UniProtKB/TrEMBL annotation:
The lineage of its organism: Eukaryota, Viridiplantae, Streptophyta, Embryophyta, Tracheophyta. The gene is LOC123143665. InterPro entries: Glyco_transf_61_cat, Glycosyltransferase_61. Keywords: Glycoprotein, Glycosyltransferase, Golgi apparatus, Transferase. It is a single-pass type II membrane protein. Residues 58-126 are annotated as: Disordered. Its main location: Golgi. It comes from Triticum aestivum. This is Glycosyltransferase 61 catalytic domain-containing protein. Residues 285-407 form the Glycosyltransferase 61 catalytic domain. GO terms for cellular component: Golgi membrane.
Length: 507
């Protein structure tokens, strides 16, 4: 009996062994394919390394070694993006006072003089508190007088002094160095407060466009998205008081400001008025890079609402992309974002010709500080697919219609974590289909600069561990790409299949 049972079990054992062997072989094949075509051939950086890199990233120009303070009328900088994840690190303790305010915000304790009878008095909400590790908001109501040319705000209801910088990048001391500090003070006890010279019936909102603004990515991540998030609730009844105002910057985004406020932006540091308002808010809230968390936002607004506001501001007609292009019955449009310095496409014309041969209507554009924002926004809005090497120019995805495809070309060097936070992660919330094209070593100009056994080519994460400056110098400042045209065409075919179908002509 036992012999018979053993003979019946034997084929099952053999069958199980064959199945296991087949599964292992399949995993090996998939691993090889993924390493060759789908991702970096290097391992992922550990969480500690990523956190160190996130906290050390600085925005710099292509031509200069370090950021400088931007003066009124200064030029826009072509700078790199930070990849800070707001959930990753604790609130920074910039000063002892900042640490005190943070502790108060977390504990819910009041400020100023301690209540003698804590049992009878409710604890007072702090005037200034951290809304995230990179944003602080100060808010008060009453008799409020803003003396912008000395960066001082007098508030009758205060019992102590507060200091704040209205720019959503508190985690980055380099950026914050260039941001003007505002002092919130109680009314003087021995003299009358400054007399009002201009009265406003609506709340005042103070924000800054210093820091790293001037770079398109930071314009949106650090200033515009937080501004929308923080002021949409006022329904236009709010007076913007802009610190460190750059006239060219305000002109660039004036259509958006007019969607958020019915009043002209005030250059608060350079006028001689004492602005009196019934309520003041200093500093915008921040949720995440290029994004909004609707559950945390007033009115449940989202980044899609922000995109809709941009469409209204710049008069953009297309709400949705299509395989049939703008008309729904023509060619889909491919927009190639060009670059003139680092991370250039070395075979850009060949890429355009290959795409045209596949049936795309191809456009090539290189945005810079002189580009008219409205004109460029309309061009991006006309695209069904947009492709570009990692850089600030991809921020224009905010103008893409819903369902459009963004292809981010990821430079060689294990940069998937960087490109993920900056553009990949925000894309889905913006109703944009994201794809990446990972540059292999044979497609990179680095192969011409280093011997094959050099650490830059063989061990990118060893370079990452040397800090942001080393990473930037090796993989962002000195690298151009020559895309494999067969691989590029395969990527475009995939992108085309992901577009919404063309409209069916009426019978």
């Amino acid at each position: 009996m036992k012999a018979a049972l053993r003979s019946r079990q034997e084929p099952r054992r053999v069958s199980n062994g064959v199945i296991i062997a087949a599964m292992l072989l399949s995993l090996c094949v998939l691993s090889i394919v993924k390493a060759r075509y789908c991702s970096t051939p290097f391992g992922k950086p550990d969480d500690q390394l990523k956190e160190q890199m996130n906290s050390s990233i600085r925005m710099e120009t292509d031509d200069e070694p370090a950021p400088a303070a931007t003066t009124v009328g200064g030029s826009e900088e072509d700078v790199e993006e930070d990849v800070e994840d707001d959930s990753a690190a604790p609130v920074p303790k910039v000063t002892a006072e900042r640490a005190e305010k943070t502790a108060v915000s977390v504990s819910g304790a009041g400020t100023g003089k301690k209540d003698k009878d804590k049992g009878r008095h409710k604890k007072k909400k702090p005037t200034c508190f951290m809304t995230s590790k990179r944003s602080e908001r100060c808010e008060a109501a009453g008799d409020i007088r803003v003396v912008g040319n000395v960066s001082t705000i007098y508030i009758d209801s205060l019992d102590r002094e507060w200091r704040t910088k209205p720019y959503a990048r508190y985690h980055d001391p380099v950026a914050m160095t260039h941001v003007r500090e505002f002092v919130l003070k109680p009314f003087p006890s021995d003299a009358p407060p400054p007399a009002c010279t201009k009265n406003h019936s609506v709340p005042g909102f103070v924000f800054s466009n210093r820091g790293f603004s001037g770079n398109l990515y930071h314009d949106y991540t650090d200033v515009l998205v937080p501004l929308f998030l923080s002021t949409r609730r006022f329904n236009g009844e709010v007076q913007f008081l802009l610190s460190d105002l750059k006239p060219w910057w305000v002109a660039k985004f004036r259509p958006l400001f007019r969607q958020l406020s019915r009043y002209e932006v005030v250059d608060v540091n350079n006028d001689l008025e004492v602005h009196c308002v019934p309520r003041i808010v200093v500093g915008s809230d921040f949720h995440k890079d290029m994004g909004i968390v609707p559950s945390k936002a007033a009115g449940g607004v989202s980044i899609v609402d922000f995109k809709r506001t941009l469409r209204d501001a710049f008069g953009l007609e297309r709400a949705a992309a299509s395989r049939g292009g703008a008309t729904g019955a023509g060619k889909p449009r491919l927009l190639i974002i060009s670059r003139k310095n680092s991370r250039r496409f070395l075979n850009e014309r060949e890429m355009a010709a290959a795409a045209a041969a596949m049936g795309f209507d191809v456009r090539i554009a290189e945005p810079d500080q002189h580009t008219d924002m409205s004109t460029f926004a309309r061009l991006v809005n006309s695209a069904d697919v947009m492709v570009g090497v990692h850089g600030a120019g991809l921020t224009n995805m905010v103008f893409l219609p819903a369902g459009a495809v963004l292809i981010q070309v990821v430079p060689f060097g294990g940069l998937e974590w960087l490109t993920g936070v900056t553009f990949k992660n925000p894309a889905a919330d913006m109703e944009v289909t994201y794809m990446d094209y990972n540059v292999q070593l044979e497609e990179s100009s680095l192969l011409e600069q280093y011997p094959r056994n050099h650490q830059v080519l063989t061990d990118p994460y060893a370079v990452h561990k040397q800090g942001w400056d080393a990473l930037k110098a090796a993989y962002l400042d000195k690298q151009n790409v020559r895309l494999d045209l067969d691989k590029f065409k395969a990527t475009l075919r995939d992108a085309l299949s992901r577009l919404p179908p063309a409209s069916t002509p009426a019978a």
